[in-house]
Amino acid sequence: MKKRVLLGMMCALLALGMKAQSDMPKVTPELEFALQLKVTLGEAFGIDNTPHGRRTVIPITGGTFEGPQIKGTIINGGADYQLNSPDGRTELEAIYCIKTDDGVYIHVRNRGIIANGKDAEGKPTFYFKAAPQFEAPADSKYGWLNNALFICSPEFRQDFKGIVLNVWRVK
């Protein structure tokens, strides 16, 4: 009797698991390339032993950006504020402004994670992704930046002193 009840419960759980899999979303969001930022950086400095960990500040000194619908320069004066934890994880928040070639200023706040770890086989892993948010004048031709989510990923180049960020709009 106990075996039958246990078998019945296992069948019911299996059926529920199959139903849960069939209820999974069938649509995967698409990404559309939005722009590439080439950000020049100043000398980083650190603040050790804060209540939250080690704080690193990296000044943003300028640069350029370009995409299919936008182009311009990065304004000197922003910074990338990073909080480093002993386990190899870094939370970042970069705050700066950009100016389009036609004179429109746009505020950028980019939050993300850098994580060094190991995979299941013990090999080193590196993860670096961020989600920039743009604040553009709503009545400008750049208003589309206000109404979408974006993700970015770095591109490391030997020929550029700074960081290159490729940004995609989530469709």
Structure notes:
By secondary structure, the protein is mainly β. It has one helix spanning 2-22; strands at residues 31-41, 45-50, 53-67, 70-74, 78-84, 89-100, 105-118, 124-135, 149-155, 163-170. Strands 1, 2, 3, 4, 5, 6, 7, 8, 9 and 10 form a 10-stranded antiparallel beta sheet that branches. The chain is globular, with a radius of gyration of 22 Å.
What are the key terms here?
mainly beta; 1 helix; 10 strands
What's the total helix number? Answer: 1
Secondary-structure element pattern, one letter each: HEEEEEEEEEE
- How far the N terminus sits from the C terminus, by CA atoms, comes to 54 Å
Q: How many β-strands, per DSSP?
A: 10
Shape: globular
Provide the β-strand percentage band.
over 45%
Q: From the helix content, strand content and strand pairing, which structural class follows? A: mainly beta
Mean pLDDT: 90
Helical coverage, percent range: 10-25%
Q: Largest sheet at a glance?
A: 10 strands, antiparallel
Summarize the structure.
The protein has 171 residues and is mainly beta. The protein is 12% helix and 57% strand.
Per-chain topology:
Layout: H1 2-22, E1 31-41, E2 45-50, E3 53-67, E4 70-74, E5 78-84, E6 89-100, E7 105-118, E8 124-135, E9 149-155, E10 163-170
Antiparallel strand pairs: 1-3, 1-10, 2-3, 3-4, 3-5, 4-6, 5-6, 6-7, 7-8, 9-10
